[in-house]
Amino acid sequence: MILFIKHINIEGPGSFQNLLNQAGCEIRIVELAQGQSLPPIEECRAVVSLGGPMSVYETNKYPFLVDEESFLLQAIHKKIPVLGICLGAQILAKICLGKVIKSPVKEIGWYKVALNAEGRKDPLFSGLKNSLKVFQWHEDTFTIPQGAKLIVEGKGCKNQAFRIGSSVWGLQFHPEITSQLIKTWTDYYSQSLDVQKLLKGYFKYQDIYLEQARIICSNFSSIIAKRKEQSAV
Question: Helical H runs in the chain?
């Protein structure tokens, strides 16, 4: 099964849940903030660590982050495919000895990012255009861990995605976003934001964005299947 790790109840799998279900993947969601425990790593074919408002360094306030760090290190060691989104990517950067720092710009809304030369041959982004329209909601950013590859770059915040080895990815942006998530996040995090403007952008780019999400999920499913075949040999 594919395990989704939630850090707060309002940041869920979004469009990824249906897309991966449609691809025949079994999904399980663990709500860390609700006291739910992570399963044995052997039960997971892949792990997706989602976003959240906390800092990766707030382990005293959010002790479940310590458990997650250990869990993700196990997944990396066992070469289980891992995808980190926003906070999830920052956790991956931290445990792989990168740093999480304040972003030079606070990004909320729709931005363009670009696949670099490494990204254009990356299996997670296979079939996507070199320039992507993505949804952002973050104040922090990560440095690229030693040995990792920067694969997607932005203008204001350069480091948008990295790959570690052949089975671990961290994305600063939110490919899983839906209109409902935008409404919920705006209401919870910042009612001063113009939710109608954000939604207008979503519906303007909806077809493009959902197709990007579909391709990423399809590629991730293929990566999981390939890893299963390799482990069976």
Answer: 15-22, 64-77, 87-95, 179-189, 195-232
Alpha-carbon torsion (71, 77, 83, 87), positive or negative:
positive
Q: Report the C-alpha gap between 57 and 66 in whole angstroms.
A: 10
Please tell me the distance from the alpha carbon of residue 30 to that of residue 75, in angstroms, as a whole number.
16
β partners of residue 111: 134
How do residues 169-209 score in pLDDT, each as one tens digit? 999 999 999 999 999 999 999 878 899 999 999 999 999 99
Quickly state the pLDDT bin for 232 (edges 50, 70, 90): low
Residue type (1 letter), 71 = F
Fold annotation for 2-232: Rossmann fold (3.40.50)
What is the rounded CA–CA span in Å between residue 109 and residue 114? 16
**What are the residue boundaries of the structural domains of the chain, listed by start?**
2-232
Give the whole-angstrom CA distance, residue 205 versus residue 207. 6
Give dist(CA 223, CA 231) in Å, integer: 12
Active site residues: 86, 174, 176
